[in-house]
Structures are given as C-alpha cells and as structure tokens.
Amino acid sequence: MQDHDSRATAYTTLAAGKDFRHELEVKRSRFITVLRRAGTEDAARDLVAGLRREFHDARHHCSAFVIGADRTVQRSSDDGEPAGTAGIPMLEALLKRETAPGVSDLSDVSAVVVRYFGGILLGAGGLVRAYSESVSTALDLAPLVRRSRLRICSMAVPHAEAGRLENDLRAAGTVMADTSYGERHAVLRIAVPDDAAAIAAAADRIQQLTAGTATLAAGGTEWVDESVG
C-alpha cells in the first residue's frame, strides 16, 4: 500500500515475490499455511479465492490479513470453524509478531490456512493453538523485508563520473534508487530518511564526493524495501 499520509515511516512485510507456503500436521489434520504480500484488501481476498479453487476439497480456508503502514485494515475469518478458534488467532499471530526486540509492525500480509480434517477432534483450545502455530511457524521461515518511506533525491553529474559516484555512495551505505542517462548528464537518485537532518547530511556528502560540482535536489517520497539483518 503506497500510503504517503501514514503516521508510520517504516514497517516490516514479506519480501516481494511468490507466495510462501508451509504445512503443519496436528493429530492427522493438515494445516497448509500460505502467506502473500498484499497491499490492498482485493489482493488479500484474491489469495483466499485462489486457494479455495486450488484446495477445493478442503474443509476450511481460514484467513486473516493486516494492511497499511499504520495497520489500519485488519480482517479475519473462521470459515466454518467454531467462532474465534481460527481467524482471530491467525490475526493475532500477524499483529503480535516481533520483527525486532519490542517491535511488532508486520503489515501488508495476507495469511490463509487450509485445513484438511484428519478425523480427530482438536477441541477449541487445540484449534486455537494449531491455527496460531501454523501462521507463526510460517512467519519464522518466510523472507521479510523492512519497508521504509524514504525521500527520493536526485543529482545531475557528468557521464564519466556517474559510475564512480554511485560506487562511492553504495560503499557509504546510501540506498540507491535508480540512475538515468540523458544526452548531457547522468541523473543519480538516492533514497534517504524523510527528515530535514538526513536530507541535509546527504547533501553535504554529495558536496564532498563531487568537490562541490553536484547539487542534491529533494523530490517526493516512495516506499522502499530494504533487507532485514
């Protein structure tokens, strides 16, 4: 979700790419968890619809999702399981997931647990544990990224200097957005934290690296994925 008006400036989400799957067996019942990065309710619900078609013979397709940098959209469904034994435990597993010590900020994630009944009743407590553990275990193994709202700043430099400057910036830990080449100049874009001090520090760094020949211009903001750990 490209929410530029959110209070949060960063949150954790799934790495972009294929859905992540993990299966857990509890007393012969199969719990197949599928996680998808989803920035809208439509994308989250598409996962449920697709899995209903794929696992059409399963008894339950329980779901939960949380969306938005501020986690303003939160939904869950028990899909026929006793009320409160599936969707809510799944949602709590998403919401309470610690992505750093004392930090729970996972969002833009849709989780579906497909259950094939194994013939042994688990009881309400057993179902709560199974659905919660299914999502938690999948999150233990799924690839996560830090998604930060960054200010995109640009600078025009001679073509001959672009490669060296880009390497120097990367070596200094600068997040590069992209580089474009025009007839007269190359335009390098970098992503910096969206605050005045960080932008000023980046401008000073550019002045030093280019001996004052390039000027950094601040543009709009974008959500940028950064690796975790």
Automatic annotation (TrEMBL):
One of its GO terms (cellular component) is cytoplasm. Residues 27-139 form the Impact N-terminal domain. Residues 157-212 form the UPF0029 domain. It comes from the Bacteria. GO terms for biological process: regulation of translational initiation. Belongs to the IMPACT family. This is Xaa-Pro dipeptidase. It comes from Pseudarthrobacter phenanthrenivorans. The lineage of its organism: Bacteria, Bacillati, Actinomycetota, Actinomycetes, Micrococcales.
